[in-house]
């Protein structure tokens, strides 16, 4: 596993939970943790349950059964491509790469490799999102006409919040767009279908921030917020939005979908619920997705006991590692990651030229 920050903790926790809650999941040994700072790495390996550490991914990626790339975006392409070239299955965090060219190289390596390549779109694994997918696939909402996706956070609203790789275009690729928008675009594709055309705008409100090391300041070269109007291949229309300066919104990912027969509304702040409108209803009903026959619920607690954000990673790791063990296909894979990246790229291109653009 490369990376031991936020995502390292989320995935290591998922791996630790698997044998307890999903007994038929493949047995996994947390073998080697990769990073650059030896002291921090040793402490993290101990805390996250890894047997050993390595400071150079080149010495590791060919010799492990599975490689998790949880590093900053600019560290996604090279180690991931090397792992796939050695036939090692990969789970890479989102967005797949800082640039479309990087994502294309990664998808090409995955296409040539005889190994699953997964992108960490964990919100597909929220029970309520799976529930919505079943409703849509069963035709319960009718023909899908409109999609609205918003992902709002506020951790950069303070101009004194320090710069990091996440505020630097060379390392991140983009800001709220790639970091948060990638999740929304993945859910749009998962629930509605491919996006064909995009008209987008990006905005940076704070263009300089204190440097992370406390010495002076650094320019902010990514967006604080983006919004876009989109047209899906199947004719549906949509709007997308994300912000890291939406004061008061801590981690609210909202999805609204209307079809000809029904509609749904989901908010990550109330992730055990789905608001549902069906013919005959006088308004939206709130459905609790915590029954034992609801997606993934059989692994956890008695009906009615809520799940949280961390459970999505357990479901994701179960699906991915099962595909690795069985040698079966996995989605969301690198083709999905590339398709999302094409939409991110289209939003940026559209914002630059001030016109609607075609995805691709
Ligand atoms: C950003 O703040 C972030 O950590 C994203 O990088 C994650 O993908 C998202 O799940 C939560 O917010």
Task: Give a description of the structure.
By secondary structure, the chain is α/β, with parallel strands linked by helices. The chain has 2 domains: 6-122, Rossmann fold, CATH 3.40.50; 123-358, Dihydrodipicolinate Reductase, domain 2 (2-Layer Sandwich), CATH 3.30.360.10. The mean pLDDT is 98. The relative contact order is 0.16. α3 (77-85) packs parallel to α4 and α4 runs antiparallel to α9 (334-353). The radius of gyration is 20 Å and the shape is globular. The protein contains 9 helices and 16 strands. 33% of the residues lie in helices and 22% in strands. It binds alpha-L-sorbopyranose (SOE). Alpha-L-sorbopyranose (SOE) binds at residues 6, 153, 179, 251. Residues 1-121 form the Gfo/Idh/MocA-like oxidoreductase N-terminal domain. One of its GO terms (molecular function) is oxidoreductase activity. This is Gfo/Idh/MocA family protein.
Question: Which structural traits does this protein have?
Answer:
single chain; 360 residues; alpha/beta; Rossmann fold; Dihydrodipicolinate Reductase, domain 2; 2 domains; 9-stranded mixed β-sheet; 3-stranded parallel β-sheet; 33% helix; 22% strand; binds alpha-L-sorbopyranose
Class per helix and strand makeup:
alpha/beta
Bound molecules: alpha-L-sorbopyranose
Multimeric state: single chain
* CATH first level of the largest domain: Alpha Beta
Q: Main β-sheet: number of strands, strand sense, barrel status?
A: 9 strands, mixed
Number of strands: 16
Stretches with pLDDT under 50, minimum 5 residues: none
CATH superfamily of the largest domain: Dihydrodipicolinate Reductase, domain 2
């Amino acid at each position: 596993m490369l990376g031991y920050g936020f995502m390292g903790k989320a995935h290591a926790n998922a791996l630790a939970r698997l044998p307890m809650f999903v007994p038929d999941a493949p047995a996994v040994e947390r073998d080697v943790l990769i990073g650059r700072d030896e002291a921090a790495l040793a402490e993290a390996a101990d805390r996250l349950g890894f047997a050993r550490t390595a400071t150079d991914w080149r010495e590791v990626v060919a010799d492990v059964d599975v490689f998790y790339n949880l590093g900053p975006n600019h560290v996604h392409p090279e180690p991931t491509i090397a792992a796939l070239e050695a036939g090692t299955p990969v789970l890479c965090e989102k967005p797949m790469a800082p640039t479309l060219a990087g994502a294309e190289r990664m998808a090409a390596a995955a296409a040539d490799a005889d190994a699953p390549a997964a992108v960490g779109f964990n919100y597909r694994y929220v029970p309520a999102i799976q529930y919505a997918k079943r409703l849509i696939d069963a035709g319960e909402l009718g023909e899908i006409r409109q999609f609205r996706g918003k992902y709002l956070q506020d951790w950069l609203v303070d101009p004194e919040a320090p710069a990091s790789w996440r505020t630097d275009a060379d390392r991140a690729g983009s800001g709220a767009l790639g970091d948060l928008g990638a999740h929304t675009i993945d859910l749009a594709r998962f629930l509605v279908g491919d996006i064909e055309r995009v008209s987008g705008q990006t905005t940076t409100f704070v263009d300089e921030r204190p440097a992370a090391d406390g010495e002076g300041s650094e320019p902010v070269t990514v967006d604080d917020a983006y919004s876009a109007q989109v047209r899906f291949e199947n004719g549906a229309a949509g709007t997308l939005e994300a912000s890291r300066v939406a004061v008061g919104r801590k981690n609210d990912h909202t999805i609204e979908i209307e079809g000809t027969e029904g509609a749904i509304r989901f908010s990550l702040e109330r992730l055990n619920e789905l608001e549902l409108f069906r013919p005959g209803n006088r308004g939206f009903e709130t459905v609790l997705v915590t029954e034992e026959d609801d997606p993934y619920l059989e692994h956890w607690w008695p009906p009615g006991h809520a799940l949280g954000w961390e459970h999505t990673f357990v479901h994701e790791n179960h699906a991915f590692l099962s595909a690795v063990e069985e040698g079966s296909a996995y989605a969301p894979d690198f083709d999905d990651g590339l398709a999302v990246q094409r939409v991110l790229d289209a939003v940026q291109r559209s914002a630059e030229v001030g016109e609607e653009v075609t995805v691709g």
